[in-house]
Specification:
It is a single chain. This protein is about 60% helix and about 5% strand. It is mainly α. It has one domain (about 5-25, about 30-90). It has a two-stranded antiparallel sheet. Bound molecules: zinc ion.
């Protein structure tokens, strides 16, 4: 049994995808600073249901369940929307 730990699996997935998309060639003209990156992640997380777990084992189960093309497509759409709205008003 691993140590109990509070994790939002949605946050982990969203943050990984935001980094991936933001650093892809499609978005090279957008600001890549940490402020904008986290602003985008926060925007997306406010739109999606959270998936909290309290152990690494549960995290792995939920992660594998969420890693499907339907869910990833929904998340990607929200991320693209957030990249554009943060890009318009970076707030720095
Ligand atoms: Zn920035």
């Amino acid at each position: 049994m691993s140590q109990p730990k509070l994790l939002n699996v949605t946050e982990e997935i969203v943050h990984g995808l935001v980094r991936f998309l933001l650093f892809s060639s499609d978005y090279q003209t957008f600001c890549h600073c940490e402020h904008c990156e986290l602003n985008i992640v926060a925007n997306v997380l406010n739109k999606l249901p959270s998936n909290y777990v309290s152990s690494i084992q549960e995290r792995n189960d939920v992660y594998n369940k969420l890693k499907n093309s339907i869910y990833i497509n929904i998340v990607n759409k929200e991320i693209i929307h957030a990249i554009h709205s943060v890009g318009k008003e970076p707030g720095h």
